[in-house]
Amino acid sequence: MEEAPPIVHGQRGDEDGDSGIGDIDSSSESDSTSVRSNTKDYVEENGRLYHADWIDGKYLLPNDEREQRRLNSQHDFLFDGNSLHKAPLQGLLNVLDVGTGTGRWAMAFADAYPDAEVTAVDISPNLMPIWPPTNCKFLVDDAEHFGGIGNKEYNYIHVRLLHGFRNPARFFRHAWEALLPGGYIEIAEFELPLKFHDQEKARDSALMTWSANVIEGASRLGIDLTIAEKISTLLKDRGFEGIEESISAWPIGAWPKKNERKELGVRLQEYWMETLTAFAWRPLREMDWHNEETQCLLAKMRTEICGKNIRASMHVRTFWARKP
Ligand SMILES: C[S@@+](CC[C@H](N)C(=O)[O-])C[C@H]1O[C@@H](n2cnc3c(N)ncnc32)[C@H](O)[C@@H]1O
Predict the structure, then answer these.
(1) Is residue 52 within 6 Å of ligand 1 at its C-beta?
(2) Where do the segments described as Disordered lie (predicted)?
């Protein structure tokens, strides 16, 4: 079996990538060599940087500048022009944005509601902005542990495309505890598997292969990428009331017949390529795919996304509910 390239652990800011890198760790479960630093701020693989816990599969996507660009374009493409919230919010707000990423939503909300206090948390500090609005503060924390965040009470908890629930029931319990009575939670997630308009035609497609294997690989890492279909039940089981849902469908490629949708599909081509690539590496590694196999799949996906034969869509499902 061909050996995968080394995984380099380092600390952001090491310009030559040299300082801080310590001993070779041969205990890694993979067939690759792992070079660990004392600080373990990030890992590098296939030219991308990831949160240090990537190796354990805690969060799958990168956290480098390229990912920052993807998250910002995602905010522009998928959410700009839409309201910042679907939950019916009233009064002065203490707001928590969980898994804030580059913080585009949190900052836009803080600007739109100057009387609100927005707390934005993420496990990755390096995605966070340098100059947030004064009523918006950024904290490094793990949503599934909640730590000090649980000590404060919020009117509104917002979670958009976290893609990383390992123990969703625990997360919803913490969210419940952190909400004031009458407070709202709102959560948006991709719906996986991908939707195909002609399942039979798509059966051997790269997009179908991506969908099945990424879900299975993530699941082996303890991450449920099919969470969207379970959110409503999780909210209900936790005791939330007035659960509502909206679904938006995004074409992956230029296949739609209607002009408006086709233009959207074309505009989103690059975004989907970036997004599906960002998701692919860690789960496919868990499925014992060689890097070359992953590269090959990504190349085939590019052809499908640029062509019109495979009519695939991503649904974004948004739920909101009230704590009684
Ligand atoms: C795809 S990004 C979405 C960012 C942002 N919500 C948006 O819509 O632009 C997901 C973010 O969730 C963060 N994340 C994943 N698991 C997390 C956890 N357990 N606790 C806190 N943040 C987490 C990741 O670091 C990443 O920045």
Answers:
(1) no
(2) 1-40
Say how many domains are in the chain.
2
Nearest CA to ligand 1 atom 8: 160
Q: What is the pLDDT of residue 2?
A: 36
Over residues 269-294, the mean pLDDT reads 96
Return the residue whose CA atom lies nearest to atom 12 of ligand 1.
Answer: 99
Domain termination site, one of 25, 40, 64: 64
Tell me, yes or no, whether 238 and 176 share the same domain: yes
Give dist(CA 132, CA 287) in Å, integer.
40
CA atoms of 49 and 63, how far apart (whole Å): 6
Assess whether the C-beta atom of 68 lies below 6 angstroms from ligand 1.
no
Centroid of ligand 1 to alpha carbon of 124 (angstroms): 8
Mean pLDDT for all residues in the chain: 85
Residue 155 in contact with ligand 1 by CB distance below 6 A? no
Instruction: Give the end of a domain, one of 18, 36, 64.
Output: 64
Its domain, for residue 25, covers 7-64
Q: Whose CA is nearest to atom 13 of ligand 1?
A: 99
Atom index in ligand 1 nearest the CA of residue 188 equals: 8
Q: Which of 156-160, 161-165, 316-320 has the lowest mean pLDDT?
A: 161-165
H or E stretch including 156?
A: strand 154-160
The residues, ordered by sequence, that sit 6+ positions from 187 with a Cβ below 8 Å of its Cβ are: 158, 159, 160, 162, 231, 318, 319, 320
- Answer yes or no: is 106 within a domain: yes
**Residue 56 sits in the same domain as residue 101:** no
Does 305 have pLDDT greater than 70? yes
282 domain residue, yes or no: no
Residue 214 lies in a domain: no
Task: Based on the fold, state whether residues 52 and 31 are members of the same structural domain.
Answer: yes
